[in-house]
Automatic annotation (TrEMBL):
PANTHER family: DEGV DOMAIN-CONTAINING PROTEIN DR_1986-RELATED (PTHR33434), FATTY ACID-BINDING PROTEIN TM_1468 (PTHR33434:SF2)
One protein family per Pfam: FakA-like_M
Keywords for the protein's UniProt record, in alphabetical order: Lipid-binding
The name this protein goes by in its record: DegV family EDD domain-containing protein
Domain DhaL: 12-202
Length: 599
């Protein structure tokens, strides 16, 4: 359709062009993942770009105004952006919106000028811009468009002709970017942008809206890749967040992030900003970041675990749990356990349990923050992402979660597992532990040891279901204040209990519901009650192992450890500062013992 003249673009044309470009990324994300080497060889650039464009596809509708449409696209992309390339692409769209005149239709010249002016937005967003990436390809594409901006009545053909420039620029990333020079690959992010424009051009040529329907069940997973360039990961966690109402300039925020990691991107504006940074200590970063604005969304990917999944798997069965699983980090790392964080909120500020907030920080905030924290379940999409990733590399997946009576996390895991198991033809077993914290940790640990010993999936899941009934937890509450603030104990009853100096002992029943095991007049007395009961059970059943837990009470945990050694003749497998999601109700100073008996 080389003779087609398009003197202007309106909102609907832009909308359908974006959908066409986005679909091209969705169709080719596996290939983009395959060639992903820079900035980290974690093979997820395609998945991240797919997530970014899907956020736009899922959240906006056609509108006749170009300005309204480009604004909606930019907002949706910024909110849904994932990964370095996704955030950069979203920032390009943000700049496009900022530099677009408030008009329902625009000409080629106006479009070209907005593209040209959007380039600095990308470069300014990145702490250390590197040429030979998506940045270079978009900039060189912009330069070509600028040279053709006087072709007023040839909008479509100018875009079509630009593809030759894009292909040349993409091919040159292999020589411009040092990290790619020893491979046969081009830059993955740049490839994603070129594919996006290829989709746009296809729509311009054919104008077939019927072909733009997106399959909502389309798989966005990674594929198995055998040949990888293994490299040392400098910073373990790929961390992203949305920050609202920033109290400092974006350059100050960028400097702050640069002192805490690398691959820094700050996109958006002071009122709504998307950040991306690779860091070793996301909890420390976010603890200080909360003073710079309101953090409303966070995402943290463990790049070490991602690399292990792809190229350093110890076994062929993957193990998944949630962050209420209280097990030492050393054991989690050794057994390559995949842990998804429960969401935790202090007012408008969002955190990820154990990732962007650690127990010591949490208990300090529990004492100082005006609002009592709230937790929320892990959503189905998070499980879909992790299961699709793992199913690409493992023969089977086993997941064990906190009691379904406490959270919808188990239910969401089941829904996602059914979908991904069907798509990949891989078994995914999801187990309700009917417990939490250290008891969940022991169940996960036993499953891990069975995987290590080479047991079958069927044997492991069958054993787990039996072990669920043999897991116990006893929590000695030190202070009722958290239970009162969280609504677990009514204020009148709480006041009476505190006046009398009552210290409840909390446990779990066989259905996974919380149970008042007993109440005493001191924590010392409640611990004696727990120890007596453990001795009684021990006379009837053999102990497999146990874990000691505490809420910022290391001295108390040491005393419990001494007493438990006297009773059992063995040391605990872990001594853990209890998960913030559990500790928010148990309260500062709580002590607990979790046990797993042989069935």
């Amino acid at each position: 359709m080389r003779n087609m003249e398009t003197p202007f673009v309106n909102g609907k044309l832009l909308y359908y062009a974006f959908i066409a470009g986005g679909n091209q990324i969705l169709r080719n994300q596996v290939e983009i993942n395959r060639i992903n080497i820079f900035p980290v060889n974690d093979k997820d650039t395609g998945t991240n770009l797919a997530s970014t464009v899907r956020s736009v596809i899922d959240n906006i509708k056609p509108h006749k105004s170009y300005k309204t449409t480009v604004g909606n696209i930019a907002d949706a992309a910024l909110i849904g952006a994932r990964g370095n390339s996704g955030v950069i692409f979203a920032q390009f769209l943000y700049g496009l919106n900022r530099e677009t005149l408030n008009k329902p239709i625009i000409t080629l010249r106006e479009f070209v000028e907005s593209v040209k002016k959007s380039i600095p937005y990308m470069y300014e967003a990145i702490a250390n811009p590197v040429e030979g990436t998506m940045l270079t390809v978009i900039k060189e594409w912009s330069d070509f468009l600028d040279s053709k901006k006087d072709a007023i009545y040839d909008f479509a053909n100018v875009i079509i002709d630009s593809f030759e420039v894009l292909e040349k620029s993409l091919a040159e990333t292999n020589t411009k970017l040092k990290a790619l020079s020893k491979s046969d690959f081009v830059d993955a992010g740049a490839k994603g942008f070129v594919l996006f424009i290829e989709g746009v051009i296809s729509f311009i040529k054919n104008r077939n809206i019927r072909n733009l329907v997106v399959d909502s069940s389309e798989n966005v997973s990674l594929v198995h890749i055998n040949k990888l360039t293994e490299e040392e990961i400098t910073y373990r966690y790929c961390t992203e967040a949305i920050v609202k109402n920033i109290k400092h300039s974006q350059s100050e925020l960028q400097n702050f992030l640069s002192h805490n990691g690398d691959s820094v991107v700050v996109a958006g504006s002071e009122s709504l900003c998307r950040i991306h940074v690779h860091t070793h200590k996301p909890a420390e970063l976010f603890y200080y970041l909360k003073e710079m604005g309101t953090v409303t969304f966070q995402k943290v990917d463990d790049m070490v675990r991602q690399q292990e999944v792809i190229s350093k798997r110890k076994w062929n069965i993957a193990l998944v749990t949630d962050s209420t699983c209280d097990l030492s980090q050393e054991l989690i790392d050794y057994y390559q356990i995949n842990v998804l964080p429960i969401n935790l909120n202090f007012g408008d500020s969002h955190y990820l349990d154990k990732l962007t907030i650690q127990p010591s920080q949490f208990y300090n905030m529990l004492e100082t923050e005006a609002e009592f924290p709230q937790s929320s379940q892990i959503n189905e999409q998070a499980f879909t992402n992790i299961y699709s990733h793992l199913a690409s590399h493992y023969d089977a997946i086993i997941a064990v979660h906190l009691s379904s009576e406490f959270s919808g996390t188990y239910s969401n895991s089941v829904k996602a597992s059914k979908r991904i198991s069907k798509e990949f033809g891989k078994p995914i077993h999801v187990i309700d532990s009917k417990n939490l914290s250290g008891a969940l940790g022991l169940l996960v640990l036993k499953a891990a040891k069975n995987i290590e010993s080479g047991q079958s999936v069927e044997y492991i899941t069958k054993t787990l279901k039996k072990d669920v009934n043999q897991s116990k937890i006893f929590v000695s509450v030190h202070d009722l204040q958290s239970m009162i603030r969280g609504g677990r104990v009514s204020k009148p009853k709480g006041i009476i209990a505190r006046t009398l100096g009552l210290n409840p002992v909390i446990s779990m029943d066989e259905n996974g519901k919380s149970l008042l095991f007993g109440k005493t007049f001191s924590q010392q007395a409640s611990l004696k009650k727990i120890f007596r009961h453990i001795k009684k059970i021990g006379r009837e059943k053999a102990l497999w192992n146990y874990i000691i837990l505490h809420a910022n009470n290391t001295d108390g945990a040491q005393l419990v450890e001494v007493k438990m050694f006297e009773i059992t003749g063995k040391y605990p497998v872990s001594v853990v500062n209890i998960s913030p999601v559990i500790g928010m109700h148990a309260g500062n100073g709580a002590l607990a013992v979790s046990l797993l008996f042989n069935s």
